[in-house]
């Protein structure tokens, strides 16, 4: 029958659309179908109801079609709304993802800007000091372990090095190449260690910043000794040939030379006259007449002698395999000490540094004597640690005292102090190799006591403005060169 099929078709569509069919509509359709069936059973009523039934069915069909259209329209609207919601959610997700990317880029940009801002806020003098220190770091990464590999047995090398203002060569074999190498090492060392303190003193704006800049330089450059000696210990323990070791260290030192060559100049705080070589040499030797320099002599002698103790005596006592690691302790203590002593100087003054020197060196000598007697290596490690602290203390104090007394035009004074220190270093490397430890200890203690008293005297006299320095800069009046800065008590 036609209408039951229509009913089933409509119900199927409604179920497909997950809609609820109004029960009255279905009942009306069933009623119409029953009436049609009744007409077949009672033909005499067929004509009477035919027109009404057709109208009813047509009306019912129209009603069903309208319901379908409404349902389909609502379904289409629902689908379109769902699609629009999905599109909106996708757009929001895209915006969020793009926002996250943009935010990440913004944060990265802000971080980079923050780093650049911090870098730009650093004083240019600090940047220049760090640059110089990094160059020295690479130089002494290669040179420091080479110096400590073996003890000095050649008198002629020391004599040649003395003539060049420094003795840092430490080579045990005789070869014609060692003579020019020794000359180059001595000459280079005298240039480096004369220009370095003069450069750092120009970087410091005033006396209270001397310790700061000296600490920055020493803390960085002594890391070269730590890493270099550590590498030396590893290579020697691994049985690497000495030639390969020297090539490695020489290459690193060459990189440091290039960096130092690129250091920017720091102008002097005051206008200084351009001096000829002759006048410069006269100024250097004239400094020996300056009373402050004369009072510094015992301390400069002590600094030179302790270099022989640090880098010749102890390496011989501990042996080649332990030398690198012992010198690492020296370097670590030197870095830590450089960071501490500069702050101590700027806050507490110079006298406290003199007292610290009086305490540290005797303790180091005691550990070394006990280590030599008991043959316990850890005592040499302790002695080397104290030596590193003492060496950084000496360097900062000598730099600060000269920069305070001679705040400008101090290259001649640093040259004199480096000359005397290098001369004593050469003497110590030669003589300590022929003396026992128990003879070396009294020598160092005697010089230490004398230098302690002279430094207390120097500080007190300078604070009283009783010193007049001698300057001979092309007939510049001496009175113009009198220094009126005071040292921290």
UniProtKB/TrEMBL annotation:
Pfam families: UNC-93. The keyword Cytoplasm does not apply. Gene3D superfamilies: MFS general substrate transporter like domains (1.20.1250.20). The keyword Transmembrane helix applies. Keywords: Membrane, Transmembrane, Transmembrane helix. One of its GO terms (cellular component) is membrane. The chain crosses the membrane at residues 126-143, 175-193, 240-263, 295-318, 324-345, 352-373, 438-459. Residues 33-52 are annotated as: Disordered. It is found in: Membrane. InterPro entries: Ion_channel_UNC-93 (IPR010291), MFS_trans_sf (IPR036259), UNC-93-like_regulator (IPR051617). It is a multi-pass membrane protein. This is Major facilitator superfamily protein. It comes from Heterostelium pallidum (strain ATCC 26659 / Pp 5 / PN500) (Cellular slime mold).
């Amino acid at each position: 029958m036609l209408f039951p099929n229509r009913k089933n078709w409509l119900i199927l569509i409604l179920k497909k659309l997950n809609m609820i069919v109004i029960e009255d509509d279905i009942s009306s359709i069933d009623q119409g179908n029953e009436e049609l069936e009744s007409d077949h059973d009672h033909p005499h009523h067929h004509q009477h109801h035919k027109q009404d039934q057709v109208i009813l069915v047509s009306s019912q069909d129209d009603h069903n079609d309208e319901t379908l259209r409404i349902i389909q329209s609502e379904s289409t609207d629902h689908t379109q709304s769902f699609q629009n919601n999905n599109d909106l959610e996708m757009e929001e997700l895209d915006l969020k993802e793009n926002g996250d990317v943009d935010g990440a880029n913004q944060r990265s940009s802000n971080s980079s800007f923050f780093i650049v801002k911090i870098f730009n806020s650093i004083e240019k003098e600090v940047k220049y000091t760090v640059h110089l220190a990094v160059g020295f770091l690479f130089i002494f990464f290669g040179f420091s372990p080479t110096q400590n590999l073996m003890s000095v047995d050649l008198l002629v090398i020391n004599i040649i090095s003395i003539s060049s203002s420094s003795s840092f060569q430490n080579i045990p074999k005789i070869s014609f190449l060692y003579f020019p190498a020794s000359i180059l090492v001595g000459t280079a060392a005298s240039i480096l260690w004369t220009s370095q303190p003069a450069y750092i003193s120009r970087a410091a704006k005033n006396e209270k910043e001397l310790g700061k800049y000296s600490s920055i330089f020493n803390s960085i450059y002594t890391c070269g000794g730590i890493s270099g000696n550590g590498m030396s210990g590893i290579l020697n323990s691994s049985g690497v040939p000495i030639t390969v070791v020297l090539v490695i260290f020489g290459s690193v030192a060459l990189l440091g030379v290039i960096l130092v060559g690129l250091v920017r100049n720091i102008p002097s705080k005051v206008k200084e006259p351009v001096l000829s070589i002759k006048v410069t040499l006269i100024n250097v030797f004239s400094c020996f007449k300056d009373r402050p320099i004369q009072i510094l002599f015992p301390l400069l002698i002590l600094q030179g002698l302790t270099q022989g103790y640090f880098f010749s005596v102890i390496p011989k006592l501990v042996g080649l395999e332990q030398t690198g690691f012992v010198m690492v302790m020296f370097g670590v203590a030197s870095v830590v000490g450089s960071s501490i002593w500069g702050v101590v100087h700027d806050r507490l003054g110079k006298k406290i540094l003199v007292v610290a020197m009086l305490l540290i060196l005797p303790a180091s000598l005691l550990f070394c004597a006990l280590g030599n007697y008991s043959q316990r290596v850890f005592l040499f490690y302790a002695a080397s640690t104290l030596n590193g602290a003492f060496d950084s203390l000496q360097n900062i104090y000598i730099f600060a005292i000269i920069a305070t007394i001679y705040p400008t035009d101090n290259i001649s004074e640093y040259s004199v102090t480096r000359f005397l220190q290098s001369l004593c270093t050469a003497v110590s490397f030669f003589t300590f190799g022929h003396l026992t430890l128990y003879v070396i200890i009294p020598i160092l203690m005697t010089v230490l006591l004398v230098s302690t008293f002279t430094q207390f005297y120097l500080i007190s006299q300078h604070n009283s403005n009783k010193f007049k320095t001698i300057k001979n800069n092309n007939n510049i009046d001496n009175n113009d060169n009198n220094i009126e800065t005071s040292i921290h008590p």
